[in-house]
Amino acid sequence: MRISAKGRYGLAAMIELTWLSANGKLIPVATLSDHLGISKIYLEQIFSLLKRGKLVTSVKGAQGGYRLARDASEISVYDILSALEQTLFEPTESSVEEKAPIIENILNANVYRVLDDSVKATLSKIKLSHLIEEYVAQKNKGNYMFYI
């Protein structure tokens, strides 16, 4: 499975957005661009798709920006990738249906659908809230307080 740059950057941006907007404040794309080292123009394209997918909301203007449309525990990696990756979750095209329909049916039932269902089920279980918990844990790793 190959996730495009748009999908990878979108996942990273959603984690950073979740982290930065923890108190509900709006986060400008420029801030995310600076934090992640991703082109502002490219992030605007990504957030346009995330907004269309109803994963983020936005407010225009000087004090505007983005925030999650719903709680991070309600957004899965599948939700994010399906909003960003137009072809990643398309059904497998038929290959030998015309000359060998029985083989095509066997492949669909035992390989392609099984694989599609497994990928969807796995990615649906991974919630943005879990990713942000991992992010916080990694960020805090090694931040020890010493008292003398």
Automatic annotation (TrEMBL):
Protein name: Rrf2 family transcriptional regulator
One annotated GO molecular function: DNA binding
Organism: Pseudoramibacter porci
InterPro entries xref list: Tscrpt_reg_Rrf2, WH-like_DNA-bd_sf, WH_DNA-bd_sf
Keywords: DNA-binding
GO cellular component: cytosol
Pfam families: Rrf2
Top-rank taxon, per record: Bacteria
